[in-house]
Amino acid sequence: MLFRLARRIFRMALTVDDGLRIGYQANVAMLLYDRYNNADFSDHDTRNKAANDILNLVFDAKYRALYLNGYKSVCHNGGGVPVVEAGPP
Asked: Is the pTM of this model over 0.90?
């Protein structure tokens, strides 16, 4: 339910803020150009790596890396500062 809400908010932000949308579009386009310009997208592994790179770009993979390295949750306090709770995943 929370992820559905987050997606809805993200979709709305991209709909009403042309600058935000253009920024994300440009960053994804450059990632594809820089890393996959001559890639064979008929290859399953290539498509999965590209998709993962895009998700990491959009959703800031440093938090995922923290979680996978032994932190049980990552959230933000009211000021947008990351707060990490230590503990096994």
From this structure: no
